[in-house]
Amino acid sequence: MRELGVGLIGTGFMGRAHALAFNNVRAVFELPVTLKLAALADADVERARRCATAWGFARVHNDWQQLIDDPTVDVVAITTPNHLHYPMAMAAVAAGKAVYCEKPLAVSLEQAAAMRRAASAAGVVTRVGYNYQHNPMIVLARQMIDNGELGQIISFQGEFSEDFMADPASPWSWRCDVEHAGGALADLGSHLLSMARFLVGDVESVCADTQTIHTQRPASAGSAERRPIVVDDQVHALLRFAHGARGTLSSSWLKRGYKNHLSFEISGTRATLAFDQERLNELRLCRAGEDGFQRVLAGPALPGYAAFSPAAGHQLGYNELKTLEVHELIMALAGQGSTGIDFAAAWEVERLAAAIRLAARQERWVRVSEV
Amino acid sequence: MRELGVGLIGTGFMGRAHALAFNNVRAVFELPVTLKLAALADADVERARRCATAWGFARVHNDWQQLIDDPTVDVVAITTPNHLHYPMAMAAVAAGKAVYCEKPLAVSLEQAAAMRRAASAAGVVTRVGYNYQHNPMIVLARQMIDNGELGQIISFQGEFSEDFMADPASPWSWRCDVEHAGGALADLGSHLLSMARFLVGDVESVCADTQTIHTQRPASAGSAERRPIVVDDQVHALLRFAHGARGTLSSSWLKRGYKNHLSFEISGTRATLAFDQERLNELRLCRAGEDGFQRVLAGPALPGYAAFSPAAGHQLGYNELKTLEVHELIMALAGQGSTGIDFAAAWEVERLAAAIRLAARQERWVRVSEV
Amino acid sequence: MRELGVGLIGTGFMGRAHALAFNNVRAVFELPVTLKLAALADADVERARRCATAWGFARVHNDWQQLIDDPTVDVVAITTPNHLHYPMAMAAVAAGKAVYCEKPLAVSLEQAAAMRRAASAAGVVTRVGYNYQHNPMIVLARQMIDNGELGQIISFQGEFSEDFMADPASPWSWRCDVEHAGGALADLGSHLLSMARFLVGDVESVCADTQTIHTQRPASAGSAERRPIVVDDQVHALLRFAHGARGTLSSSWLKRGYKNHLSFEISGTRATLAFDQERLNELRLCRAGEDGFQRVLAGPALPGYAAFSPAAGHQLGYNELKTLEVHELIMALAGQGSTGIDFAAAWEVERLAAAIRLAARQERWVRVSEV
Amino acid sequence: MRELGVGLIGTGFMGRAHALAFNNVRAVFELPVTLKLAALADADVERARRCATAWGFARVHNDWQQLIDDPTVDVVAITTPNHLHYPMAMAAVAAGKAVYCEKPLAVSLEQAAAMRRAASAAGVVTRVGYNYQHNPMIVLARQMIDNGELGQIISFQGEFSEDFMADPASPWSWRCDVEHAGGALADLGSHLLSMARFLVGDVESVCADTQTIHTQRPASAGSAERRPIVVDDQVHALLRFAHGARGTLSSSWLKRGYKNHLSFEISGTRATLAFDQERLNELRLCRAGEDGFQRVLAGPALPGYAAFSPAAGHQLGYNELKTLEVHELIMALAGQGSTGIDFAAAWEVERLAAAIRLAARQERWVRVSEV
User: Fold this and answer.
1) Which of A267, A269, A270 to substitute to test the interface with B, most B CBs within 10 Å?
2) Are A253 and A184 in contact (CB under 8 A)?
3) What is the pLDDT tens value at each position of chain C, 371 positions in all?
4) Contacts of D279 in chain C (CB under 8 A)
């Protein structure tokens, strides 16, 4: 069996989530390749060493370019801050390596477009970390839509809200920085845009409203220094899908009470289906002829669930969605077709977000193809 | 104590709901007037007589103008089909009588404007049946907003969806008729618009999308004859409130699983508050500093609830909201200031709906004052 | 049509609830009799007069015996404190009048047995106010059980908890008085016992545990004087039904967070069905072959609901359950068979409660027929 | 740092769950030891080899005694069928090794007692796999109880129900075998008993009812051959805790709609707290003075959660509870005191289950100390 060497850049929370996923995918799935945790890169080489031991990587680099050039590395996983996605991914693509990059793809639409073109030209496999879509309940939702169980899809109403910036004393961070693709739409809303496209298809045009409520924040926790904030705290948008469905999108990082409220309701002529990431093992479903909404709980009839547990009700966690994402990546690398989000699909998400920003700025409907 | 004579036009479901409310308000509240069920009008005089006996009205008329002219009638309650609201209300106002009219106020914005002007010129008390707003939980929500418990209101997301037209075989009815103010926006959405205005204030501008999914329906149940449908099956809109809040509105009568899903979430800088008419005795609330949403159940600390029950958890029903509405009407007639929806406020709702239709037709943001 | 005269004793909250119900039943249902609100009795004759006017009663009495003897009274409704149920009901039965008595039937099992015997000997119609059973959702539950939709019933788990005595500073009241049938089992649990019998049938034997947590309370609100408390604050019991089902019952008036948590889950070989009075317009149901629990919302397919509203989702309130109870009473008085709780059935509830107390006291299983 | 060698017996679902946990614990926690996956045993040596590669074990044994004797093994993890727990654990204890055994501890109370005595005499660390207790939400519940936030605990109502045997055509398995500690009480109820003891303390006496509904089942899936069933399909019990709380326990594997309904409500004088394993990242809580139940969502304020995610709302899954259990085991092996379930505590659970069976058989209250 072919050996596949993984190189991971970054040792933060997301780096560890990748490491867990690459370890677990070997235990949970029968893979068509032999997976090897080849190399880990971090500028702090001591930290890199410590993490490599804990996470099972064979060697370390303190320079990410070295990791990319490392001949034992076949796929480069990028978990660094957003503004580094572009140079790292471009270098990896240039080296003919597959790339697995955290979202967002880049900090500008131009970067994203360049990454997409480069990957396409090089013919390498790419994936972007929209891990929520690998949830077996989302895969089930997609299947139900594809099978026509919902009938014609007529409405998508989505919201991704959290409250981690609700306190005006929450300090500035790179998430507030427009050059690092900041704002609620970029940070949260992009997950929902990707989800909407995954489930309902291309969006044709949008109209939107974005707003900054807290126009300055402490420069750091507890600091008296204030930094101005220009990125959006909340966004509301209207969506028109290519196949005719209409919908709304809302995203806020100021909404008290929500921690991970990536949620949607999809209305079809034959059924309504609803989901909330805060209860990620459930769907709510009401089919024509039924009295009311039913709670559908994840169980082993779904392959992505069965990989982890033979019994319903055991529940998957966030980190297991990452393992499922990594599994899909590996299957794609082994040439077994799939539905993952590649650079082209991630660019579509960025373009859609850009269309929303443009529509808000110009206060008009914008065709996504304008952007 | 002054005697107040009630004249009721109409003996359908809504007529009976009024009759129940006028009966119950006397038992439930200490009123500043002596309420007398003076007269009931229906073109079918036999039916009028039967209902008058069952509902406790003193006399009957088979002609609504006679009821308006009846000297024992001080307030005219109108529960007839929408297109009759205008002539009846105008006649009552002309006779100097108070008017209590079911929603929508009229079948065109022009009619509504004329009714508003006439009532204002005549100086009569008017009320329109947006009964959901008299729910003690909604009154509580309004108080919390007024008291600043939610902080600055930054977002209103509202939806009123039902499924009673979801089946394409559901036949045409006057609700599908554009001349009778048909469509999901008029039938359902207007309740939500009134609610949004009651809670968050004036809407300044809107952008919207309306859609007819089933463009023809059986002329009547089971009929092979088809009638074309042009009114909206669903609507999605963006709202900008005068005081700065932003939001979305969705309304559909095709959404499987919902029966009376008049719902909203209001996000403030200090708390989030949510409501769903399908569980009308509850609010969901999360204040700054709290771990998550709390279920607040209606109880006797709320005057509107205490009128019906001394113990929490007993729950009010739809008909009791009507009794609360009638109580507010009577208090207004007795000169005791209140927050009911009069013709001026109902005209604002109609104008807002018209602005939404215009925005959808012209695919642009529309200032409400344009209409 | 025969005229039926109603005499009501008591003008408190429950008196008013009866008055509302007798008024509304005429508006809501087509009755086989002409209902007349004949007389209202209260020792305070001024209060009686005021209420009679507000509630529509023809005359007043300041002596309940006079009301019973009043020839215009055919059915005597008793809403006085528990210890007066016995003398009033016995007098009414002796006068050959029908009796509609609030629960509990009496303050001792001996009284209840005497009332049952007297009513049976006199052949009068009797009803006891277990109004929760008239909820259309409960009627639906009973139908589903009778039709075999749940299969063989194997388990009933019921709980009726509230928190109105949770604060140790909540003062003594007659509800704490053993001579007035006090305690959580009598006050709350008896509703659940009646519900269990209505849905699952006779209980054959019980084992139980009762407990007084707060053994003294202020004599009145804010008082420094303490009164000893001996009635149960909470009870837990095992139930064996005659037809083989087993179950548990819990009741507490100390349970923080609950306001009217009269709830149960019934497990059958083909489905599980759950209910909670705090959401009285809903059932939760999962049938064999279905993925999970479904929310069934009350709608006009249920006659008891259709009487009040032609549209699903409008929701009934507590007072409307009372109207449904009164409707069943009137149908029974008109000789049209029904499922209401008469003195015999109410005595069974009291006997079952007595068996639970005996089982707790003697710490052993008790056959209900022992009592 | 000391090296700790792990030997794992068994390669089924639970074996893999252990393997995942031992791998992940190294990535997720800073450990006070160097953890080494030393050896994996399975009678099928080919399977052992394949799994060892996928799961990262250094060597394999086809004989479990060899694994126990392997000098690189310090702790023996047992994931074999229940009847093998006793011989394996006894051998490991005899070899002076620490033991980490899946639940139930043994298939008879006698075995469990012998295991407990042997472990105590040998002075080895032992742990039993009641992994649900390592959920950060359960740890939080325990802390709240210990801190007095709930006040005096007065009631525990627990239920663990599933539906995997609800279909009478579900075949016989070892779970139905009385010699392998079968039945709903053993399989499901024991988790709840352990949870009740963990949260509320020792149980002093019990009364109970057990029932077999389907007294025969197919010998295997689809087989016409029937095997008689004598173990309990459902159990209901009353519990009296040593510190005064009272409660109920229900367990069923026939209850339609439930997949992993390990649930409880704990009522204290100051708060009520509720949990359901089907939503394992949540608690419901109502404190004195609050309006209603609040949903508390797991977040990084809880150390067990923070180990996996820095952000609230990300949610843990079943397998991560296992990682937390393994972490606690390692801390105990490193001499850092903790709250895990050792053989003594697991024997208490078995004794309590035996007391429940005795109480059901003899239809009387049983003191746990009688058994």
Assistant:
1) A267
2) yes
3) 799 999 999 999 999 999 999 999 999 999 999 999 999 999 999 999 999 999 999 999 999 999 999 999 999 999 999 999 999 999 999 999 999 999 999 999 999 999 999 999 999 999 999 999 999 999 999 999 999 999 999 999 999 999 999 999 999 998 998 877 789 999 999 999 999 999 999 999 999 999 999 999 999 999 999 999 999 999 999 999 999 999 999 999 999 999 999 999 999 999 999 999 999 999 999 999 998 999 999 999 999 999 999 999 999 999 999 999 999 999 999 999 778 999 999 999 999 999 999 999 999 999 999 99
4) none
Separation of alpha carbons B294 and B283, rounded Å: 8
SS (H, E, C) B22-45: HHHHHHHCCCCCEEEEEEEECCCH
Out of 3.90.550.10, 3.40.50.800, 3.30.360.10, 3.30.750.24, the CATH code matching B132-314+342-370 is 3.30.360.10
Q: Which CATH fold topology does B3-131 show? A: Rossmann fold (3.40.50)
Q: Nearest chain C Cα to A299, which residue? A: C291
Q: What is the Cα gyration radius of chain D? A: 21
Crossing angle of helices A109-122 and A85-94, in 10° steps, is 10
Nearest to B205 by CA among B364, B21, B25: B364
Sort out which chain A residues have CB atoms less than 8 A from D299's CB and list them: 259
A260, D314: Cβ pair inside 8 Å?
yes
Helical ranges in A215-342 per DSSP H: 303-306, 318-333
Q: Find residue D257's DSSP bridge partners.
A: none
Neighbours of B96 (CB within 10 A): 10
Residue bearing tokens 């009385």:
D178
CATH 3.40.50.720 in chain A, residue ranges: 3-130
Query: Which helix (H) or strand (E) covers residue C25, if one does?
Result: helix C13-28
Give Cα separations from A352 to A206, A367, B115 (angstroms).
Answer: 8, 9, 45
Phi and psi based region of residue B363 (left: phi greater than 0; alpha: psi -120 to 50; beta: remaining): left
Chains touching A, CB cut-off 8 Å, 3+ pairs: B, C, D
Counting as contact any 3 or more CB pairs under 8 A, the partners of D are A, B, C
CA Rg value for chain B: 21
Phi, psi of C238 (to 5 degrees): -105, 140
Q: Which residues of B touch C26 (CB under 8 A)?
A: 54-55
Tokens coding A195:
């989800």
For A367, other C-beta atoms within 10 Å of its C-beta total 13
- Answering whether pTM is above 0.80, one says yes
- Per the CATH hierarchy, to which homologous superfamily does domain D132-313+342-370 belong? Dihydrodipicolinate Reductase; domain 2 (3.30.360.10)
Task: Pinpoint the residues of chain C covered by CATH 3.30.360.10.
Answer: 133-314+341-370
Please, where in chain B does CATH 3.30.360.10 lie?
132-314+342-370
The β-bridge relationship of strands D246-252 and D234-241 is: antiparallel
For A132-316+343-370, CATH gives: 3.30.360.10
Arch. (CATH architecture) of C133-314+341-370: 2-Layer Sandwich (3.30)
A217 and A176 Cβ atoms separated by less than 8 Å: yes
- May I ask the CATH architecture of the domain D3-130? 3-Layer(aba) Sandwich (3.40)
Distance CA D169, CA D148 (A): 48
Contact between B39 and B18 under an 8 Å Cβ cutoff? The reply is no
CATH 3.40.50.720 region(s) of chain C?
3-131
CB C345 within 8 A of CB C47: no
- Kindly provide the ipTM of the predicted complex, given to two decimals: 0.95
Decide: helix, strand or coil at residue A67: helix
